[in-house]
Amino acid sequence: MKISIPTLPNPTGNAPGYINPLAHITLPAAVAKTKEFLDKGKGKVLVLTGAGVSVDSGIRAYRGSEGHYTTNPNYRPIFYGELVEPGPKGYSFRQRYWSRSYLGYPPVRDAQPNPTHMYVAALQRLGLAPSLITQNVDRLHHKASPFDPTETDKRILELHGTLHFVHCPQKGHLHRRDEFQELLGKLNPEWERVVSEVHGGKVKTNPDGDVDLGGVKYDSFAVPSCADCEALGIQDSIVKPNVVFFGESISEAVKARAVHMVAASSGVLVMGTSLATYSAFRLIKQALEAQKPVLMLSIGPSRADGLPGVEKIEMPAGSVLEGVLQRYISSRQGPVQEEVRSLMAKGVTKVPENLPAPRAEG
């Protein structure tokens, strides 16, 4: 079976001759429309986010201005079948993945929520959009959450997993990524120096924590097996990050939870994504089939362009949400409003280097 990177069926929209009726909407009108969408939702709006939401935290988006995968046409990610393939060939793929991810993970781990993450958290705190599905694996929505960890996990579903944990597919042993990161460092103490000699210490991190190390040979990089499996006498076990790779299926439990969240919602507010992956797009289809409204705040082409029932505002989600939240808190005073004001002030902006503008999101 041939596996390919998800792309948009039509980079100018699904419908031939599609013209966005909201193409020239002003910011005040976009704020009013989004507030109306939330008001009509009566506290049951579901938020769906993509990679574009995390760009202002210094994490590069997947797609360029035309909706193509990354801005580097020569970049190719590791596929699931390659990562878990047994034998020397599979080990070589794992060397490539972990040698790059070893350098790419710390910037994702250390990234801070930007204003858009905080605005989404504020919507949750106000009860306007209590639930969230994110395609992002950076855990920044968790960092932004005003709730305790247990409540946060109830409210946020990471559709494609998270980089912050690793596991072995064979036995399911779960480990924190930082522990595995430390082990990689001990086994490969010279790796950062080797890469620095080729790249001068500068590498570009993709949303999945991978980096492009063109010119660096990784065949000397040591990849450890699962420590728990080794303790049980299981040899040559495989460790992979808790993210869904291209060619890998989302678990049935995650699928079922996502379907339930859409079914329980009054509508879906989509931010920063092209919806190129079917796992996210099918949730929009589910909402539309149930005659639930869908409003998108996203720049660039998307898989949902032109679909009946989908409205799209081509503006950065953050600028719209800021205006929406100001309207909700300006006329009221109280502990919740003060907490929302505090959340809105906490976002940190760090734009990735060498990004074209405008950029597609997700």
From TrEMBL:
Domain of life: Eukaryota
Protein name: Uncharacterized protein
